[in-house]
Amino acid sequence: MKRCKYFLPAALIALLAASYAGQAFQESGNDATYHQKVKPKAPPPGPPAEPVNYPKSALARIDILPASIALVGPRYSQRLVVEGTFADGHQEDLTAQAQITSSDGNIAAVDKDDFVQPRADGHTTIAATVEDQRASASLDVKDYSKIKPLSFRNDVLPVMTKMGCNSGPCHGAAAGKNGFKLTLRGYDPETDYFTLTHQALARRTERMEPAKSLILLKPTLTIPHGGGRRFLLNSPEYKVISGWIAQGMPAPEETDAQVTAIQALPHEASLRPGAKQQLVVTALFSDGRREDVTRWAKYDSGDEGVATVDNQGDVTMHNFGEAPVTVWYQSHVAFSRLRIPFPYQLEETVFKNAPRHNYIDTAILKHLEALHIPPSPTSSDSEFIRRAYLDAAGILPKPTEVEAFLKDTSPDKRNRLIDQLMKRPEFVDYWAYKWSDLLLVSSNRLSDEEMWSYYNWIRDSVAQNKPWDEFVREIVTATGNTVENGAANYWVIHRDPLDTSENMAQAFLGITITCAHCHNHPLAKWTQKDYYGMANLFARVRLKTFSPSGARAGIGPLFNNVTVYSAPTGEFTDDRYMTVLPPKPLDAKALPETTPGDTRIYFAKWLAAADNPFFARSLVNRLWRNFMGRGLIEPVDDLRATNPATNDELPDELVRDFTSHHFDINHMIRTIMQSATYQASSEPLKENAPDDKYGSHYLIKRLPAEVLLDAYSQVTHEPEKFDGYPAGTRALQLPDTAVKSYFLNAFGRPARQQTRESERTSVPTITQALHIINGDTLNNKVRAPDNSIDAMIKRGLSDEQIVNDLYLASFSRYPNETERAALVKILHTAEQQKTSGVDDMRRNALNDMLWAMLTSEAFMFNH
Amino acid sequence: MLPRASCPFVGGRLMLRLDANRSVTFCDGLTRRDFLHAGSLGFLGLTLPEFLAVKASGAVDPKKDVNCIQLMLVGGPSQLDTWDMKPDAPASIRGPYKPIKTNVPGIEISEIFPRMAKHADKFALLRSVYHTAAAVHDTGCQMMQTGRLFQGGLESPNYGSVLRFEKGARGDMPPNVLIPYMIGQLGGNLPHGDTAGFLGKAYDPFVLNADPSETNFKVPDMLPPDYISAVRVDRRRDWRQMIDQSVKYFEESNQDAKLMDSTFDQAYTLMTSAKAREAFDLTQENEEMRKRYGLNRFGQGCLLARRLVERGVRFVTINMFETVFNDITWDIHGSAPFSPISCYSELVGPMFDNAYSSLLEDLSRIGLLDNTLVLATGEFGRTPRVNPAGGRDHWPQCWTVVMAGGGVKGGQVVGSSDSIGGAPKDRPVMPSHVAATVYKCLGIPIDKELKTPQGRVVRLVDHGFDPIDELLV
């Protein structure tokens, strides 16, 4: 929580309190506004505990950022940064040490703050020197004598946004403040222009005497202002606004140039603890113009332990690691990835010789190398087979399968194992279950018949490896009887256009647009108009239903025999937004308002397209998470522009691979599993132990609830009986998460009420521990007559053989000598120990040992 | 099963005794009572001799510490319909409810709380709370449970987790408990601030995960089945540890693994504590008492909280609801899937009124109110202007927090709002001020510095936010 940046004299405080409800100026992080004299909100972390002795490294090159400068008109200047790269690969901001000169002082000059100021039209170069290194940048000045009026859209609004005038806590709030309402972060210049020039008896902007404008008097605290002082008299901010007013307040026009992209330099850098790095931000406009907007951009650090950034884009580096610094300007976002590589002494060949099986490893290793984090060695065969079976099919390998794999000496055995796994029916079960999570298949929303229809359609799609775009398109455009067409059940679950809209975005694009229901999204660029425009795509879906077959509290009746169809016309409005908006998928092109026909078809085309920036990305991120334990972007349902991936290149490469293989999911599964990154050991090295996101080692993860329950059944040979399902049905074969199971609920099975990845949890809890220590589920399997222990006893196996077999079944490996000896020893002792009245002491001892194995972390975690 | 009067230490480790119910003296002079305490030393991180020494020195005297019960009024109660009535405002603002007098002259609250009105001398109304973050439920949950918005990758711990971190457990009881379930879907996917955040999952609350209003409510699986004797429980526990020798690196590198171990330890602790089992046993309260609180999840949750605090739990969070979707809650937007304004008089108001009043009455009667801070708040207030659907939307610009006990001076109003309840008029305070006040009551210095796993130092309460001293005695 940032506080007011200014110390207000006591008298002024009293005045404020009296006249403006004493609203002290406070703001939240995402709407934080900055001003020059910012006080840090919390003391930034100090340098790392042990200062590093970096060996001396010579300066290898310098670069001027940006490398080419174009100044249009007399008003704009360009901030320069001189970035040095040293022989050992690290960077430093050397602007302060550099000699920067303009080759032609008549065209442009470099001032004492290292800003380039234009003087006359022409072309020249800027040269920088540091020690014995030189760099140059090209410079063009044009239209020097053309004084263009200040633009409301591109000059005034950005200043107001930077100063926080239109932020969420202030005048950008849904109800504005004190009668003055601006659009949130300036997303609607036309409305804001009207507000500033026509409302409030036009006192906000005084054309004849700009200095008397309320829009200048208040934020400079010349007169009381609930928001405090935002900028000083005659500051650059003041001059932009007063200049624009003096010019007659030209309105924003349709023909104004608009920002098409922004660029933050340096794009990435490897720095040292305590280093400072100034960023330079350039906006590119639709008319080809470029402008230095460093001063007006907003900055945020993704990890303040690593780097903090002030409101002028000056970054201070603290601890080892990487911080993506988010840069925001006029609704565009860019990142600068700044890092302090870890200071470990590593062999030169660590990265060179690390295995690279495919492009995944190349991208991961490149980044690890930049961070100076070495990868762990590859996993053992035992670790690999257990992990692969669990991640791809949700089952454990049988002891015979383990033994065969361990014995196999062929060099490509891992790849062949992957291929075999993908052919198993359990593979289909696992992925059908996963997509059923996403699509909310459950008896809470569907009748049994429909639920099975939906589930079977999903399962068939997985079995055929139906391309993801086809799969989604079939859902989005589904019509017909819900028992005959399983995909149509989506429309029974989502009957409200708003709910459908939100679900489509979350499930298939990985983005959350809920906030935009009531106002423009505070964290992303989606406006309320986008939200309602999208909802209007689903306004024509109708359900023809017959008699209800039951009801669920809070949800409504369940129907049998539903037919989904699209009415030829129909628009969506509701109490909150009563204007009909043309149907429009988020920020894509809208359909004309009264387009007849099934508007879902248009949406499906936009959604399941190779060039949709979220569609493929969202899916490959979910796949990645399944295997690696963590998405490249987290959370997986929050792929907004301001949420950077942990690796810049890899998501794009995965998307390219996915789309060029026609959305083939199995191909991606295979590619991920074949990578050396996936196959790395989970045991960290001292130097990569702190890494939990860059892929240096496999991240251990607790087995999901259903997988764990099935694993218990598998090792004990004692299946779980689910109400209403035939004996032997595995948890992963259930079409319904509403099936009664205390175990599954306790261990984090999702309710399938909302398409949120976090509905499923694997955090250990005391409830879970109590249940496997004292509860029925595991204990009944362990002690059941005719379970696997019983069978081994009946076969006459010795304690040693039993320990051996149980290790193969539970951990996919043989026990080592120490383990075998220790366990056999305690078994022998325990078998002599009378523990209660009735007794099979041997059976009790073996049961206890099996229990200990099944509740160990070695069992309960995938590693 | 007969208790054995033998040395409780078997092979160097304390043997679990689940069955001893006669007074027994062990060979080295320890009583059974001490022994039961000893089973729980994991919470305190003490060995038996240390524990006895500390006990002798009086440092763990429960009467010196202040407890807290935090009632999360999920959904966000409307200030204008509950504790900050504006009967003189136009009809489009004042809403359908009328104010009633309380037992403190000058203080009026909504007619939906007739019982609470009889206890105004016990609680204080803080009517000028506001925040400036996004007006979504998640941010309010974060701020009202931790004092802070989660930014820059930092997840702050909630009050109960900090209290646990600072003071540990009292005897066998879990130090912080959450009743009945974690908050679920509120429309966003941000964290809710109901855990120990960067302090580490080992300080997370014990989540009940059961509905205390159900007929056969009990904490599931508190005791081993009768076919597993104490000896076997013990050896299972030992053998499990042994098997995990091969994967020691799990706990060093993974929070969940470390936590799993801790949850097992805590499970064993709960199992050996007759006191803990008894605390969670609502059948020990008679029908009358249970009806007084209300035979619903929230009412029985408050009753359970009272029992827990009586028996040594330091911090109880009660989530009045788990979701605002398709449920009747304080979130009265006026149209589906949210709640209508009428639900305040029909369901939510009476639910709160009965449970809260009973809680204050009981704590006061038992003499625990001075030692127990009761904090009731939602995530934000609601729009002064009734919306087209007849409801009210989110309004973090002004709302009321209700505080009682633990050093709070009852029978007063602190702060006030403007004529429509839309903005604080006087004494505006933010969630961080409330946090500072809570910590002051709990006896934890607000400038205390906590350390994150990345080595970052974080002040308990942000600089510049002081406790609201007018609230305190």
Structural notes for this entry:
The complex is a heterodimer of chains A (863) and B (473). With 863 residues, chain A is of the alpha+beta class. Chain A is built from 30 helices and 27 strands. In chain A, helix 15 crosses helix 16 (528-535) and helix 24 (766-774) runs parallel beside helix 25. Chain A is globular and about 100 Å long. Chain B has 473 residues and is of the alpha/beta class. Chain B has 14 helices and 18 strands. In chain B, the strands form 6 sheets. Chain B has an 8-stranded mixed β-sheet with strand order 8-7-9-3-10-13-6-14, with helices on both faces. In chain B, strands 1-2 form a two-stranded antiparallel sheet. In chain B, strand 4 (99-101) and strand 5 (108-110) form a beta hairpin. In chain B, helix 5 packs parallel to helix 14 and helix 12 runs parallel beside helix 13 (343-366). Chains A and B meet through strand 26, helix 24, helix 25, helix 28 and helix 29 of A and strand 8, helix 7, helix 8, helix 9 and strand 16 of B.
Low-confidence stretches of chain B: 1-63
For the terminal residues of chain B, how far apart are their CA atoms? 53 Å
Largest interface: pair, residues per side: A-B, 98 and 92 residues
The strands making up the biggest β-sheet of chain B line up spatially as: 8-7-9-3-10-13-6-14
Helix percentage range of chain A: 25-40%
- The value of Rg of chain B in angstroms is 23 Å
Strand content of chain A: 5-15%
- Provide the β-strand percentage band of chain B: 5-15%
Our Rg estimate of chain A from Cα atoms comes to 32 Å
Largest sheet of chain B: 8 strands, mixed
The low-confidence parts of chain A are 1-41
Structural class of chain B: alpha/beta
Question: What's the number of helices of chain B?
Answer: 14
Which whole number gives the mean pLDDT of chain B? 85
Secondary structure: elements and pairs:
The complex is a heterodimer of chains A (863) and B (473).
Chain A: H1 10-19, E1 59-65, E2 68-72, E3 78-79, E4 81-86, E5 91-93, E6 99-102, E7 108-110, E8 115-118, E9 122-130, E10 133-142, H2 152-163, H3 189-197, H4 214-217, H5 236-246, E11 259-265, E12 268-270, E13 276-278, E14 280-285, E15 290-292, E16 298-301, E17 307-309, E18 314-317, E19 321-329, E20 332-340, H6 349-352, H7 359-371, H8 381-393, H9 399-407, H10 413-421, H11 425-439, H12 448-463, H13 468-476, E21 480-481, H14 490-493, H15 497-509, H16 528-535, E22 541-544, E23 548-552, E24 556-559, E25 563-566, H17 599-607, H18 615-628, H19 649-660, H20 665-674, H21 676-679, E26 701-702, H22 705-716, H23 742-746, H24 766-774, H25 776-783, H26 788-794, H27 799-811, H28 817-831, H29 841-854, H30 857-860, E27 861-862
Parallel strand pairs in A: 2-10, 12-20
Antiparallel strand pairs in A: 1-4, 3-8, 4-5, 6-9, 7-8, 9-10, 11-14, 13-18, 14-15, 16-19, 17-18, 19-20, 21-25, 22-25, 23-24, 26-27
Helix pairs in contact in A: 2-5, 7-19, 8-10, 11-12, 15-16, 18-19, 18-20, 24-25, 25-29, 27-28, 27-29, 28-29
Chain B: E1 9-10, E2 13-14, H1 32-38, H2 41-44, H3 48-57, E3 67-72, H4 91-94, E4 99-101, E5 108-110, E6 123-129, H5 137-146, H6 159-167, E7 176-179, E8 206-207, H7 230-243, H8 248-253, H9 255-271, H10 274-279, H11 287-293, H12 297-310, E9 315-319, H13 343-366, E10 372-377, E11 381-382, E12 394-395, E13 399-404, E14 412-414, E15 416-417, E16 424-426, H14 431-442, E17 449-451, E18 457-459
Parallel strand pairs in B: 3-9, 3-10, 6-14, 7-8, 7-9
Antiparallel strand pairs in B: 1-2, 4-5, 6-13, 10-13, 11-12, 15-16, 17-18
